[in-house]
Protein 1
Amino acid sequence: MNICKCFKCDTCETLIDCRIGMSNRDIQPFQFACPVCEERITFTIGTEKDDLTGASETIDFKSPFTGENHFVELHLDFPVYFGKYTKGMTTFFRVMDEIGRNEFGHLAQRLDMLNRLYPLQRDLERVITQYKKGNINNFEKVCAKLPMEKLRSHKKEDVLASLYSATSIMSSPFTIHEQNEELSKGFPRLYQHLHGKHKNNVIDFAEEIINNKFLKNLHFDCLGLYPRLVELDLPLRPALFYDYIEVEKYRPVPARVSTTYFDTCNNYYKDLAEVFSRQLTLLAGLNNLLKRGDHNEFEAKIKLNKKNEPRKELSSLNKFADVDLGQKIQCIDDCFYSINMHAIDNRLRNGIAHYKYEYKESTQVITYYPVKEGMERVKSEDITFMEFLRKTLLLFREVHSLNHLIKATLYYIVLILKKDV
């Protein structure tokens, strides 16, 4: 189903023809910018209240559209394209044509999961909050409100089981089930292997990250990302589309999003990158144990700089923790976990982390400045908001994948070493 409207911008009085494809989401908030003056125009379908801002609705407009006015296409679930109006070429039919009926059916299932997920947002947030506070009674009460098994007991292993059931609920529409299943089985086997081959050293490693609270802090910071992911249900929806199609097909025509939350998404991307960087410290320690039997021992050649001198930042895992994200990946040799490098864009991260970017809402193009240039901004790079959201989704999947490693570490400590965390 599609709705056609015509809006008149409050600022410049430009007429904008708008075709809106309907999602199955009960509340559908839309937002776009006037292509002439950048006035932000917002409205919501699914509520009784008329909340149109930034424009007025023109009642007597020609239908179908004649092409005389600016045209925008909107749909919450899929990428949309602004340009020339084509009768009958709706977003729904374009998507069906691009990915086929079978793939569309799978995508529709994930979108339906999102529709059922976002009303649970507050309870899911409470699960994380009460776990962090250590209030297991309240944690149990909130878990009982969610579509998951009841907390079996207040033992640490059962609390962790319920906690990770909740994070699984929050992440399932955004992640790949087969990958989650593989990692949830593979990481515990890694600890079994290390405990058998380097028992004393892996225990030393575990005790170090317990005593310096690195594991607890990393665990809590990682958990905090999940409720915020659910908050980004709207802008991340269309990014799921690219799981079913070759991204290169869409490079010539930048796709757009029908809700623009760049500031919120920007902060989330920065926090994802920060947590991922700290997860790499855990990954590096285990990789060092696996390869050399010592979590502090990095590969010999990597430990030397171009002058053949020892690199201080690789003298221990504690020093390595302060290394920048881009450099950390290069220091983990032949890693047992394959990092998706398409998810890592250190230049983009540097640009937005230091507020060296500009965002044009009407075209949804982010211009960022990734290198140090003193007070100037000269060397810029562009990325569409749609591409940015895709990178955000891929980076979350990396964080979620390594959260499986955190979970395996916690279970190893609780069940095998019989220690508290």
Protein 2
Amino acid sequence: MARITQVEIRMVDLIPPVKRTDAIQSFVSQETPIVTITDADGAQGVGYSYTIGTGGPAVVSLLRETLVPRLIGREAEEIESIWRDLLFVTHATAVGAITSLALAAIDTALWDLRCKRANLPLWRLAGGAKPAIPLYSTEGGWLHIETAALVEDAIAVKEQGFAGSKVKVGKPSLAQDRARLSAVRAAVGEDFRLMVDANQAFHFHEALLRAHMLADVGITWFEEPMPADDLSGHTRLAAASRVPIAAGESLYSPGQFADYLRAGACSIVQVDVARVGGITPWLKVAHMAEAMNIAVCPHFLMELHVSLVCAIPNSWMLEYIPQLDTITTARLDIRQGVAHPPQAAGLGIAWDWPAITAQTIAGSHSTHSMK
């Protein structure tokens, strides 16, 4: 054990390599807060979180002004205690996205440090349930993409060995969504999984109508059909739909997941390690889902989630959306459409520090040290 002696904060803003649109927004920017924690022995852990274009400065401010000063002098191995204490300090702003994203940047750094001190990769230290995970791709399924291009991408990823593709839905009419999905299904056949994501766009009646159509097309899951705070709507839809309901990327605490699971409001849990507040609460959600025989397919953050889904037994697939290519020196290990977790100690993310330094947003960098 060693006490935390220094914490460094910075933020980079990453531009997605392709245009990303869904039924409610465009993903034009990825503000990425990065936290580096150093202990008294000189060991370091690096953690991060993200936004999709707004709120990053607020996350950095919460880290700088409230959370990070309370880390100095703490025992770095006491991750559960630190997470709980920081959550209590921010109880007036929790549960919510800004607080969870800030907590996640710290918590992932502490887990990185723990794994490095133990000389173990995250996927083993957090559970070591499986050595690899099948991938499905979202990167070719954005809402603005024309049907012919959707078909071309789905065929391409199927040929690469991916388990499936996800297509965004939420066109003005049900018929438009059906035509797009039917064309892809006809091209890839019945044995290739197709998922859809509405990004919380529908009212209940429209979600129910679309769910009936999706069942006819052979869709594997219907993701975020309605606003995430409509628990009763998701419960009613899950009971009526022949297509499993997936949810979780817009839930920000284990308690919110517990509400969904108790109500039977989803069949696939898409817990996001950044939005739920870090690895510590992510594992709680994953094990809660396991106890209820529910699969976990996390949202986004494939470079970090690859280790977490290999740590647990009830993971099903990993979402392919490249996130960190411009600030890392190594890519996700993919073989015939299957992702393999890093074997290096820690999170296993190969940070490109010259690139990170060059892309650090002015005014976001600060260092906090033991006096």
